[in-house]
Design brief:
The complex is a heterodimer. By secondary structure, chain A is mainly α. Chain A has four helices and no strands. Chain B has seven helices and five strands. Chain B has helices at 7-11, 18-32, 42-56, 62-74, 85-93, 100-112, 121-129; strands at 2-5, 36-40, 78-80, 115-118, 134-136. Classes of the chains: A mainly alpha, B alpha/beta.
Chain lengths: 106, 138
């Protein structure tokens, strides 16, 4: 027999997740809490494989391959912060050089 | 929960630097904890720019570069446009470097009520001092 006792679970959502839930629930004419319950039930009853997204294995495999490349000395001796900073500053410089003729003409 | 990730965290994974381990640990933890990872659109261009430069300089193999993109795909990143140009400028004004590109990441963190995670110590210090939600990956 199935018990009719219902358990209360409090769940915290980020603003963005709650906003999505609220919109989706409104579109379906449901309260956010009801839609959340439907979604949790669907997730719990889904086949086991479906709760292990393909990207989980893809992530583990990709990270393992990068680790192997690094272990073989294929990692790059470069400062990652410097690389991205350089990419940003190059564009800032382009902007500055694009502005300078206009400034000189004034 | 959601996190916003700077491009330097992903690029660090193919570097032989102390930051690599920190970036690897952090990315693995986000994945394990099923964090939603968000980035501004420019993230892709910045990672691509860094990898193109490394490939052109002969320090990064095509294979390693491809593996970075495989990993980026597997992270299920959500890409976002800026909330508005005015917001970027307003944020940049409060940063010593006045970079609209730094501002794009902070803007996204503010919109999502999340934190920006970066390996850039100066950005983290300056942004935190300005009251923005930024955490240094260590």
């Amino acid at each position: 027999m199935t018990s009719n006792v219902r358990r209360l679970v409090s769940v915290r959502f980020s603003e963005s997740d709650y906003s999505k839930l609220e919109k989706e629930a409104a579109a379906l004419g449901l309260k956010p809490a009801v839609l959340a319950r439907v979604m949790v039930r669907a997730g719990l009853n889904a086949p086991r494989e479906a709760t292990q997204p393909h990207s989980g294995k893809q992530f583990t495999d990709a990270l393992a391959r990068i680790d192997r490349l690094a272990a073989r000395g294929r990692a790059v001796s470069a400062d990652p912060v410097g690389l991205i900073r350089q990419a940003r500053e190059e564009r800032e410089k382009q902007r500055a050089s694009a502005l300078s003729p206009l400034s000189a003409g004034r | 929960m959601s996190v916003v990730v700077d491009a330097n965290v992903v690029v660090a994974l193919v570097t032989a630097t102390p930051q690599r381990d920190a970036a690897r640990d952090r990315v693995t933890r986000w994945r394990a904890e099923a964090e939603d990872i968000h980035v501004p659109h420019l993230f892709i261009y910045e990672v691509a720019s860094a990898l193109c430069g490394l490939e052109a300089g002969g320090s990064l193999s095509e294979r390693s570069s491809n593996e970075v993109w495989n990993l980026v795909d597997a992270l299920d990143l959500t890409l976002h446009p800026p909330s508005s140009g005015a917001a970027l400028v307003a944020i940049a004004r409060r940063l010593p470097r006045r970079s609209a590109y730094d501002a794009a990441y902070i803007d996204l963190a503010l919109v999502l009520n999340a934190r920006l995670w970066t390996l850039d110590g100066k950005l983290a210090r300056n942004a935190e001092a300005a009251g923005f939600p930024v955490t240094l990956v260590v």
